[in-house]
Design goal:
With 320 residues, this protein is an alpha/beta fold. The protein contains eight helices and eleven strands. It folds into two domains: 120 residues, Rossmann fold, CATH 3.40.50.720; 165 residues, Dihydrodipicolinate Reductase, domain 2 (2-Layer Sandwich). The chain has a seven-stranded mixed sheet with strand order 6-7-5-8-11-10-9. Strands 1-2-4-3 form a four-stranded parallel sheet, with helices on both faces. Helix 3 links the parallel strand 3 and strand 4. Helix 3 packs parallel to helix 8 and helix 4 packs parallel to helix 6. The protein is globular.
Length: 320
Amino acid sequence: MEIKKAASRSNAGNDVTLVHPQLAKLFSIVEGDIDDDNFAQGLDVAFLALPHGKSAPLAKKLYGKGVKVIDLGADFRLKNLEEYKYWYELEHECPELLAESVYGLPEIYKEEIKKKSIIANPGCYPTSAILGLAPLLANKLIALDNIVIDSKSGVSGAGKTLTQQTHYPELNENLQAYKVASHRHTPEIEQELSLLGGTKLQINFTPHLIPMNRGILSTIYVKSLKSFTNKELEEIYTEYYKDCPFIRIRDKNHLPQTKWVQGSNFCDIAPIYDPRTGKIIVISAIDNLVKGAAGQAIQNMNLMFGLDETTGLKYGAIFP
């Protein structure tokens, strides 16, 4: 693949290194205006990383010109228009394109991704939660009425714009829950878990902000329908993800850590059975900017164009 064009709302007309100086001597291109009718010329695929509500009309324009689209925003993630309107307080501008899109979680929708031209790249929290739960739901091993997802994320998940919550004196030496019972990733998680479980379900999802740059650790609590040994659980997860190059199954003695996935496209998962409570505790870890965003977008691109799924992504964690 070759990067042909870049666009920006705030840096149009300037070299990309003006806002990304770390790319000096590695990459240089003057950013253009994606609204320009000529922008799509010569492109095979475009990645959109825009606020919700802004991607859909651009995706329609690009799709109409034969350009495949990978949207890192929320505009194509929810299939229910009423859910989208409720959670994002917007009318969807291009509902006719929802049928042309697929939820871009390769571990579940690999074959569909290969056939589609619009990919809804999943959110970072949903990636960690859905991958953590998929084997249990697909095998009907847990109760569906009491799923609790506790997630903690580094501050890069909030984007570059400074807020009071992400201001260094507020964030440092602090741990805070936010958007309790109201986070917009909730319906996305519920949608995909409902499809896996075969029935409409609801979850309790609570995100937390922690004072580090990147990474998500999700701890998920579910009621098991039977007893397991931890080895049996690990075998279930290993079998489910046997064709998934970026899933690593960990165990009780090697629980996932954000440091082990930082800068990589891996998702580390450890399912643990608690015989005292009859619950399964699943711990999953991803880099919110890689498997939770840009890395997963590249993984989707590879699948769309018939490339090896791991192309450009064969990197271990940045360690220490």
